[in-house]
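agent> call fold_tool(seq_1)
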Amino acid sequence: MPAPINPDLPRLDRLKLWLIGVMLARPGEVLADPGFAAEDWDMIARCAGQHRLRPLLYHRLRDSWADWAMPDALRVNWHAAYKRAALRALDRQAVTVDVTRTLEAAGIAAAVLKGGALARHYGSAALRPMRDIDVLVAPAEAQQAFALLVKSGLVARAEVSGSVHVDYATHKHLEALWCPRRRVAVEVHTALVDQPRGRREDDVLLQVEALLGGRRSEDVGGHPVPVLGWAETMLHLIVHAVYDHQLNNGPLVLSDCAVLATDPEADWARFWEIADRAGRGAGARLAFGIIEAFAPQLPAAALPGGENPDPATVEGSALLMLQDTGQADAQGGWDRLFALGSWRRRLRLVRDRAALRSRAAEHHHHHGDSGNLTLAWRMLRALADPVQRRDISRSRAVFGWLQER
């Protein structure tokens, strides 16, 4: 049975945890009327919109909400979001197939990453909105792959906000490409992680050639598409969400892990071997712990013995996944600092980011320190907001737990 939601939490936090349980509910499962007031549904609608949950929530709730005191406008909005997501998914699937065919026709081994590899597991691609399409290639073939995709009709474009600070020489992907016809970005990845500092040398996610050598095929829109091995895909999802984004890129990763766990090709022995060898086993236990707390469904092999997170850590992690994206800059700054562990690493992060922003600003004839001062001011100002202060406290506790393991 799911763990009961702590009644002492602020109302907004209880609503967020209810959302986690709903998005992880099994398809067709009839859910009890939560008895929410109109203002509660307003908060839920805002949170669902920020984190791309509307299609999934519509699909999970449509068999349950007939007699609920839920605003009709919200039902209509979520239904419309579901239909838009279904149409958008067709475009993204078409681009995914075209990109992989273009690369493989030229003899370039490629693998589609994250959401692009999960459509079959969701049943409907509409349930897993994708911001962009990520494809991994060997570093030595990246420029050739980029040129081929441009020749095929994609166009190079400047990234959205913050792209001026990206150093593509060390970044995990090249400059984003844009498909004008389908209106979606494509990123050619040369690595699964940005910087190997702090990662173990035998971390499988650093071994790009081996990852590509272990590819398998997934059905995407009726066409075979190359993806990473099952264990590597699961580990990448967790590392990307827990370690690279400090839990602040939304809760869809929980749904991703839950549906991927049902794959008949699941190899849990290999997953735990590569996760623990890479020093990322604690992050996996954290992600799986959230799923089991709010919608128990994982197989026993996903929950081996070991030091699993306590209920407070699970609760705090789930709430960090649903933090207000309007405060993403300030909260993200605190999350990154806490995730680094030692103060030496934290100061190095500040120094490196300041240097990169300064170089970029000089190129564009702006004052080099303005971006850093603005971020620092937002981080300090966040301490005066009770909601943000709670998230900062949770971040410190959660990443403290991860650092100790």
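agent> call fold_tool(seq_2)
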Amino acid sequence: MRLLTTVIALLTAAPTLLLAAPVDEAVGRRQTVSPPILCLAVCWPEKKKCSNGQWPAGDNGCYTCCGIAEGWTPGVGTDVEIEG
């Protein structure tokens, strides 16, 4: 319950930040991670792969790359590649 309260407080205080977890591609649902990773939301028209080789998490055509710990910088186009 404390985690849920913290998540709500974070989303209310900073609407540009999203809590995102890795997406299990096989079943298309988010995995549970602890503690949650704060990521900046970046909207792309198509899904791209992060420079660390991970798929971003996101819904409705807006994807978030969570490779900040691996040196990924939001907004730098050279750190992502278009899939397909």
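agent> summarizing second result for user.
Helices lie at 2-13. The longest strand covers residues 17-20.
agent> awaiting next instruction.
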